Amino acid sequence: MTLLTPLGIDFGTAMLIAVLLPMAGAVLLVLAGRWPNLREAVTLTTAVALFITVLHLLGGYLAGEAPRLVLFDVVPGIPIAFKLEPLGVIFSLVASGLWIVTSLYAIGYMRGNKEENQTRFYACFAIALGAAMGIALADNLLTLFIFYEVLTLSTYPLVAHKETPAARRGARIYLGILLATSIGLLLPAIIWTYAVAGTGDFQVGGILEGKIDEALLPILLGLYMFGIGKAALVPIHPWLPHAMVAPTPVSALLHAVAVVKAGVFTVLKVTVYVFGTDFLSSTDASVWLMWVAAFSIVFAGIIAMTKDNLKARLAYSTVSQLSYVTLGAMLASGYGVTAGALQIMMHATAKITLFMCAGAIYVATQKTELSQMDGLGRKMPWVYGAFTVGALAIIGIPPLGGDWVKLYLVMAATDSGEKYIIYPLILASLLSIGYLLPVVARGFFGNLGDRAEPASQFNEAVPVEERIRAPRLTVIAPVITAALCFLTLFLVGPLKELIAPLVGAH
Fold it and tell me: What stretches pass through the bilayer (predicted)?
């Protein structure tokens, strides 16, 4: 018997609502553009409504519902379709929940920094969330690919938001790399899969075993992993640091809410539902990509240490941290999939905290370089306190949830007989200490000085001590997400139970 949500609708319809609600919100945002307060009320209302819808879907899944909704066939036997499954539930919860906090932050940031084209910003943001929901709930490769491309196109105006030459160049690189990889690599991989398997539907255990020559399997896997450009695997990663020309709320969207999480979620989904971890493990087809991911983790961490620009440092940190998910998937074990799913949740809350703090610093001081930020922690203790929590979560210091990811990756490496992968993981943890803790140390213990500087927004000299005040919402939001970094520790158990059908005893 099909259960109904508390709103009296079936769960298949609820999935469609989750995809279309942000799109409808985007239309309302454009209509409300002349009235900023109404526009921002629409943003928050839509975000909250989406999160409630996703919670209903979670409740349905926990009650045993696994609805499938077919909209229409693109060609006979290949439909646009949605289905509720564990990985999609996790991604949709992370994206919809953090959209609420990001919206609060964006209101403070966009107003405090007096950004132009705010209506376009909020509307594109909403479309991007709708695309993320489509990716999360996709039941086959075609549906996923369509929403994957919608996500790319809807975030291009966000990256180019400031419309400066640097912003336009960064946006062109962003769009060029993501479209080139998805059309040039991902799409051929999808067509190849349909050709050999006769289907692109996601199935637990995969759809390729016995359908493809095992000698060709590493090639097809490589097309997928590099074609999913949003996962930012080296050398496909340059779009991510170039996109840092965007406003900080966009950086939060790129790094935590939708874009890169859509990438690594797709990596996990393809690994589990197209290839199957048992098939990959039995063929060793993923071993070479496992080492590519390990190299990406270390390489990006080294580059992060060289960056003085705080957002650039955090961007390369993201490249490194994303590869943890790819590594977990390529280890092709239950522990690896568990590590990847945990990393999606843990990294989202921690990295959004770090970017929000960087944005709060910028709005208050117009400073972007780490070398300019000595002593600011004593003037902005809440912001730097939140940054400290996010940094410790990324590093993996207990009791924050990030340590569980590294633990499960070590267990996955041991379980898969790839013990040497443990050494890059240790090095990556040391590197994360090296590129994150200096931000905290310089903020709290560096010499701020007492010189007067021009106030960026008022064109008059004001003593530094009197003007380091970020808009309230840009402080409240990262404090909330910093608290979530602690909460994720208690979500490890429920998340493991949620994905248990995919990983067996692990």
Answer: 12-32, 44-64, 84-107, 119-138, 144-161, 173-195, 215-240, 252-276, 288-306, 318-338, 344-363, 383-401, 421-441, 473-492
Q: Which amino acid is at 310?
A: L
Query: What is the bridge-based pairing of β-strands 460-463 and 452-455?
Result: antiparallel
Q: Return the ∠ at Cα 130 (arms to 137 and 494), rounded to 5°.
A: 45
Q: Which helix or strand (DSSP H or E) is residue 219 part of?
A: helix 217-227
Contact assessment for residue 141 and residue 81, using Cβ atoms and an 8 Å cutoff? no
Structure token digits, residue 325: 């998910």
Whether 190 contacts 141, CB under 8 Å: yes
Dump pLDDT digits (tens) for 153-181. 999 999 998 888 988 999 999 999 999 99
DSSP label of 369: B
- pTM given for the model: 0.91
Cα separation, 281 vs 437, whole angstroms: 37
Q: Are 505 and 421 in contact (CB under 8 A)?
A: no
Burial string for 36-59 (b: 16+ CB within 10 Å, else e) reads eeebbebbeebbebbbebbbbbbe
Question: How far is the C-alpha of 304 from the C-alpha of 293, rounded, in Å?
Answer: 16
